Amino acid sequence: MSPVKPSNKEEEYFLRKEAEKLKVAAEKARKEMEEAEKRHLKDLHWMRCPKCGMAMKEITFRGVQIDKCFSCGGMYLDDGEFEQLASSEQKGNFLSSLKRIFTGQEEEIH
Ligand SMILES: [Zn+2]
């Protein structure tokens, strides 16, 4: 065996090291692809109705931001907003006011 030629063991060692590096690089690329896909989906769906896909409009009513779809009529509440509505002292008033706003129907005052 020639002294300059690497032994099979050395060759195997270097290839194993190279394979480990390539595996780490592939894992990094996979994670970057996942992040890019997440950003892409967020860009596509941001403020879009989850049911019909039309753009939603934000309406602030008594401090609660309501995302409303004027195409299919759906409404979206962000995290904590439902709790804010449910714990509101005026929840009865709040919900019937909301109904009047979005249906355009006046209710009789008793
Ligand atoms: Zn919709």
Describe the protein:
This protein starts with 7 loop residues before the first helix and ends in a 7-residue tail after the last helix. The chain has helices spanning 8-45, 81-86, 91-103, and strands at residues 57-61, 64-68, 75-77. By secondary structure, it is mostly helical. The model has no long low-confidence stretch (mean pLDDT 88). The protein folds into two domains: 1-46; 57-103, no CATH class. 52% of the residues lie in helices and 12% in strands. Strands 1-2-3 form a three-stranded antiparallel sheet. The radius of gyration is 29 Å and the shape is rod-shaped. A hairpin with a 6-residue loop joins strand 2 (64-68) and strand 3 (75-77). Residues 49, 51-52, 54, 69, 71-72, 74 line the site of zinc ion (ZN). Zinc ion is lined by residues 49, 51-52, 54, 69, 71-72, 74.
What key attributes describe this structure?
single chain; 110 residues; mainly alpha; 2 domains; three-stranded antiparallel sheet; 3 helices; 52% helix; rod-shaped; binds zinc ion
Short description:
The chain is mostly helical. The chain contains three helices and three strands; from the N terminus they run H-E-E-E-H-H. It has two domains: 46 residues; 47 residues, no CATH class.
Task: Estimate the global geometry from the Cα principal axes.
Answer: rod-shaped
Largest sheet: 3 strands, antiparallel
Distance between the termini: 105 Å
Overall pLDDT score: 88
Helix content: 40-55%
SSE string: HEEEHH
The total number of structural domains is 2
What amount of the residues lies in strands? 5-15%
Question: Any idea what the radius of gyration is?
Answer: 29 Å
Strand ordering within the main sheet: 1-2-3
Structural class: mainly alpha
Q: Tell me the number of helical segments per DSSP (H or I, 4 or more residues long).
A: 3
